[in-house]
TrEMBL record:
PANTHER family: PHAGE-LIKE ELEMENT PBSX PROTEIN XKDP, POTASSIUM BINDING PROTEIN KBP. Residues 41-90 form the LysM domain. Keywords: Signal. Residues 1-27 form the signal peptide. Gene3D superfamilies: LysM domain. The lineage of its organism: Bacteria, Pseudomonadati, Pseudomonadota, Betaproteobacteria, Burkholderiales. It comes from the Bacteria. This is LysM peptidoglycan-binding domain-containing protein.
């Protein structure tokens, strides 16, 4: 890919949208990052917008905007903040996208100078993809990895001899808490089987709620005392707890995988038979397969092999039918979770999730 000037990259990184010439961007990625022939002259950013949605108004493939900027793998990890009230302009004469602010009363434009925003200052910024769709999945443990539960603390008894625990109840826990005081509670859930081999490749964790530490045990054999803060399902003795992870910054940048990916859809979250746009699915590849957060995959229905009607002994493989896009937002060793971004058909277990062509 052609190298762009430091100034151009800085403007792209700090202003939030690329300002590279259209001709340059198309030369680098001729089939994936072309502007739409009917792209609008401008778009006013409003609360609820996403980078993906805004990009889709200008580019034929919304996910490829980092390629238009010419960013490398490390550079796309930086925040790209855009705020409600700013305006994305399509300068047709120069083939550039520019970010500006309305002056309010005059209808003019104030040119924004490049500036860096530090971590934690992006609370009002729009997100890369719909945050409400994936928020609950970011901090809850979804997959139980090998040996992860071996030494995890666990509930030994609810208060007053109760069978189950609800919000506000006391729970008694044993195990090494280290320095943590806030925990999530879960128990092993559904086994996830590879659609190709039929082997169990992971166990999905059933998220039950959260606990807050009230009092540490004073002796080695004394239980710790917790209060149930939130419950999704009733907790019981034997349920395991893990420290609540730090909430991530919802700033994911889409990109194609570094290598060839030929994965399959393993499960549809919620136990339904088929999934649609903005639903969550898992695939049978993860970190071990060089998939990382932000990876974009092409969803396709697997083409069947049929007998040729004119020669029943001759078998014909039908082509795989592309029908949508999957955005990977959480990755484990052998399983990844993705948000269905754009589909023209339902997503079924066993469908293909491949590198974009």
């Amino acid at each position: 890919m052609k190298k762009f000037s430091t100034a151009a990259l800085l403007l792209a990184l700090t202003a939030g949208f690329g300002t590279l010439p259209m001709a340059t961007a198309q030369a680098a990625t001729p089939t994936r990052c072309e502007f739409l022939p009917n792209a609008p002259d401008q778009h006013v950013v409003v609360r609820g917008d996403t980078l993906w949605g805004i990009s889709g108004k200008f580019l034929q493939h919304a996910w490829c905007w980092p390629q238009v900027w010419g960013l490398n793998k490390e550079e796309i990890r930086n925040p790209h903040w855009i705020y409600p009230g700013q305006i994305v302009y399509f300068d047709r004469a120069s083939g550039r996208l520019r970010l500006g602010n309305s002056t309010g009363g005059t209808g003019g434009v104030v040119k924004l100078s490049p500036h860096m925003r530090v971590q934690g200052m992006g609370n009002d910024a729009i997100t890369a993809i719909p945050a409400d769709a994936i928020g609950p999945f970011l901090s809850q443990p979804l997959i139980i990895e090998d040996e992860e539960l071996k030494d995890a603390p666990h509930i030994v008894a609810p208060q007053d001899g109760r069978i189950s625990l609800g919000q506000g109840d006391k729970a008694y826990v044993v195990g090494d808490l280290k320095e943590a005081t806030s925990f999530q509670v879960f128990r092993p859930g559904t086994q996830l089987k590879d659609p190709v081999t039929g082997k169990v490749i992971a166990n999905e964790a059933l998220y039950l709620g959260t606990l807050k530490l009230d009092r540490r045990g004073k002796t080695e054999g004394e239980a710790h005392t917790f209060t149930v803060v939130e419950t999704k399902q009733e907790m019981q003795s034997g349920d395991r707890i893990l420290p609540t992870p730090v909430a991530p910054i919802l700033n994911y940048v889409p990109h194609a995988p570094t290598g060839e990916v030929n994965a399959r859809v393993v499960s549809i979250y919620g136990g339904v038979a088929a999934a649609a746009q903005n639903q969550i699915v898992s695939i049978n590849q993860g970190k071990a397969d060089n998939i990382d957060v932000g990876t974009v995959l092409q969803l396709s229905r697997f083409g069947k092999t049929i007998a040729d009607p004119s020669d029943r002994k001759k078998m014909i493989k039908l082509p795989d039918e592309e029908y949508g896009t999957l955005f990977i937002f959480r990755v484990f060793n052998h399983i990844s979770y993705g948000l269905i971004m754009e589909v023209k058909n339902t997503v079924d277990i066993g469908d293909l999730a491949k590198s974009p062509e």
